[in-house]
Amino acid sequence: MFLIIAVATGMAFLFISLIFVWLQSRELKTAWGDVCRKIYMAMIGTSLLNLSQKKATKAWRPSPLVLSGAPTSRWHLIDFAISIIHNRGILTVATVLTSDHLASDRLRALELNIEEFLLKRQTQGFARVVTAPDPFTGSVDFVKAYGIGSLIPNTVILGDTENPAHMADYGEMISQFHLLNRNVVIIKDDKVKGFGNRKKMIFGGAAGRPIVACCSSYPISYLPVVPGTGLRLR
Length: 234
What we know:
alpha/beta, Rossmann fold, 2 domains, five-stranded parallel sheet, two-stranded parallel sheet, 47% helix
């Protein structure tokens, strides 16, 4: 056929090849699901098992869990988390709701809204929305349960409480985070200045855990938006 009409023969061969590839892809998806997804799942499973067996202290990196409440009104918490991971860590933004009447599909819709909000801010991360009788107990239960294998958040970032009536519950929550062997970063929000010009940052390390302040402040000082930032550790 090439000797008769080479162009038509080539076009027919290309068309048949495209149909063959399309049919093959449909057959794979029907029988085995999305092949790429299965490859990713296999890689993730192998990586998680390797992470569970190896502990690389020198390669420690913050894996922040931000208890943000409403992310739109507490962006400064997420902003701090982004600053310490440099888009190389795994960011999780969590919200604890006190309503007991939210269906699972409604919770998932709220998570998708938060993830979309993060993408608009050019940030990648996971979002989780859970319900609990009160935000303090719900936060502790979430930190206990969240994660898989050794891939769990090692740093909890949250805001400072402004209600004196919540001080006891807030303090108990922080104590539980400490017992769970999590680093805790409490950020006090100045609604007037915010983070200001970010020329000076003051970190107060808890007894026995001053290293988290050093590990967190070092990458912040090298952010492009805050060159020459002064650091003070207490």
